[in-house]
Amino acid sequence: MESHGGNIYKIAAKLGYEPSEIIDFSANINPLGLHPEIKEIILRNMELLPHYPDPEYGDLRRAIGESHNIPYEFVIPGNGATETIFLYCRSRRPKRSLIVAPTFSEYERALRESGSEIVFHELKEERNFVPNFHEIMDRVDSSFDLVVLCNPNNPTGVLCHGEELLTLAKHGEKFGTDLMVDESFLEFREDCQEISLISSDVPSNIFILRSMTKIFAIPGLRVGYAISSNKKLMEKMTLLREPWTINILAAKVAQEMLDCRDYLEKTAQYLKDEIDFFIPKLRRLPWLKVYPPSVNYVLLKLLTPMTAAQLREKLLSKKILIRDASNFKFLDDKFLRIAIKDRSSNESLIKAMEEL
Amino acid sequence: MESHGGNIYKIAAKLGYEPSEIIDFSANINPLGLHPEIKEIILRNMELLPHYPDPEYGDLRRAIGESHNIPYEFVIPGNGATETIFLYCRSRRPKRSLIVAPTFSEYERALRESGSEIVFHELKEERNFVPNFHEIMDRVDSSFDLVVLCNPNNPTGVLCHGEELLTLAKHGEKFGTDLMVDESFLEFREDCQEISLISSDVPSNIFILRSMTKIFAIPGLRVGYAISSNKKLMEKMTLLREPWTINILAAKVAQEMLDCRDYLEKTAQYLKDEIDFFIPKLRRLPWLKVYPPSVNYVLLKLLTPMTAAQLREKLLSKKILIRDASNFKFLDDKFLRIAIKDRSSNESLIKAMEEL
Asked: How are beta strands B23-24 and B320-321 bridged, if at all?
């Protein structure tokens, strides 16, 4: 588990800090924090705790369907998007899968667990990790059941156009190859709806993931969902699904917050402004290569003899936690990832880095 | 999912009731309801929602370990006991399993999903579903990787002695056979600690399940755990575990409520008294066979031409929901299960049944 963002509890305990003393740049959570409405939703629904959640999560699925103008039947909710990754893999049982990497590590874990052979399509550093769709399509043939791609990609921040992904999916259709697209960070962008593959006529070989955990800053509650128009796959997933995995408070929060458009707009606007402020300041550090962010995190590369692990240690002594990104496939010990946080935290990081 | 207790939301919607109007005897939740402290714990920890849970759930595991006087390393927490059933099956991958049935259906689902052949050991109605351990032991040989038994058993209510289970586990040891014992309802009893297999020297082939959902009336939050001294199994389970499945509020509630002994004692005492009141009244109905309850639910059999499904419909018209138990393996359409609830609900059920 140490493979993900920092286990801030363990780190704090080890260093003798309180978890709240540490500025956590390792988890990519909405910098605006918890919407005040969320606490009220939890208070309002406390009386539901002695009841099992609706095992079909009907209201939640209907709300998600309405919010995207897609049928209820296209929606499968999960305990975070992660549950739906594992559930897809157990249900579809891909024999051979192509993962476009470096990327989030749970695709590989879920696929390995369900017995898939895994091939990586390496995104090249010299191209700033921008995927070449011609190359990916050249590799896809009937030996692959699945291609996995994260958009925007974690940790590189590279954003692909919806058109490119649809072309790839269409190409895959010829070979019976699915395309899994993880849109967990897409809602941090104003143009989310233009780029998203979610639509009422989404091809049946596309499986789309959405997280609500990150955009609504509720990793402590956990909720996400997946979208597919593949009826057989959805039936299999419903059959294999473990019961009641989404707690009733998370389900209610998700259902009521889905259409909180003003919060989404405010977040996207805030990020645009903060990127304009923060990124030039990072770029002024001569020992750092800054990859262009598209959402709420930035990939960085150290241009000094120092490793990301060493930088992480140094910053930890200043109670700042960053993500050493060296354990992402195809990234070496010079790479790190940081979240874009509130102005004062971002300034603290800049200051700490300048002092190094 | 309809295979479990009632989906009260769906049923209420279908009949045009509010879910709160229905008296739900289909879910086996603590009749004392939510402990007031639980709301306070949630309020106190709301600020943690923007943080990922500790992926190792260190504090929770330590609290569970201390509460049972067992090492931290024996404890694996889950999103309900159910998560640990599925995780065990994926980690241990039993080739052939013996399920003592009728019983809770998720053992079978989890085992099938992980590819186990399943053999049922049928508990006989003419013996009131009391297991004969000699017969079970006679069947166990090296062809079985696992025996599954629920204690007390759901839905029969039959309680086994710890000694019998330890003898069975010792017998299994010779053949490399594990014993999974589900103690999800055991804490409803005063003598829980005497009967439980949880101890610091639990044999390594025993896997024990505990739910906190039922005893603390929090099926809307969901938390449970499993206990094993098998180091290799625990490592495999840790490796295969999906991250952050227990939300931070559930983890905090579980951690703080674990040692709420007065609530457990009050519950056990209440149930004893309520069984004394309720069961004789049920027994007075000449068309009903009442199996002796050991915890907070009762198995019933109709001695009339009416089926459990028909009785369920009739009671639903009086806004009372019972569990048609005919879909439990080896039970026919005459069986039903009801929870033991608060006095006034129990009286309503008696009255409704007398009127039939």
From this structure: parallel
Q: Return d(Cα A272, Cα A270) in angstroms, integer.
A: 6
Which residues lie below 8 Å from residue B309, measured CB to CB, with a gap of 6+? B324, B326, B333
Q: Is the Cβ pair A106, B243 closer than 8 Å?
A: yes
Q: Which amino acid is at B279?
A: I
Give, for A119, the enclosing helix (H) or strand (E). Answer: strand A117-122
- In chain B, the largest separation of any two C-alpha atoms, in whole Å, equals 57
Q: For A222-235, what is each residue's pLDDT tens digit? A: 999 999 999 999 99
pLDDT along chain B (356 residues), means of 10: 66 87 94 94 94 92 97 96 96 98 97 96 98 97 98 98 97 98 97 97 98 95 96 96 93 93 95 97 97 98 97 96 96 98 97 94
Q: For residue A264, how many other CB atoms are within 10 A of its CB?
A: 20
In chain B, whose CA is at the least distance from the CA of A108?
Answer: B240
Rounded to 10 degrees, the C-alpha dihedral B94/B96/B99/B100 comes to: -120
Strand, coil or helix: what is A150?
Answer: strand
How far apart, in Å, do the first and last CA atoms of chain A sit?
29
Q: How far apart are CA B12 and CA B5, in angstroms?
A: 14
The closest CB to that of B243, out of A1, A59, A250, belongs to: A1
Cβ–Cβ below 8 Å for A8 and B51: yes
- Looking up tokens 């780029």 gives A195
Residues 6+ apart with CB under 8 A from B183: B151, B196, B197, B198, B208, B209, B210
- Look up the pTM and report it: 0.93
Type and span of the H or E element at A226: strand A224-227
A58, A203, B345 from A73: Cα distances, Å: 10, 14, 37
Condensed to tens digits (0 to 9), the pLDDT of residues A339-355 reads 999 999 999 999 999 99
pLDDT, position A10: 84
Residue B217 distance to chain A (closest CA, Å): 5
Query: With an 8 Å Cβ cutoff, are A54 and B10 in contact?
Result: yes
Residue A96 CA: distances (Å) to CA of A115, A118, A223, A303, B115:
9, 6, 28, 37, 20
Instruction: Judge: B220–A52 Cβ closer than 8 Å, yes or no.
Output: yes
CA angle, A247 as apex, A238 and B154 as ends, to 5°? 70
**Whose CA is closest to B32, among B263, B344, B272?**
B263
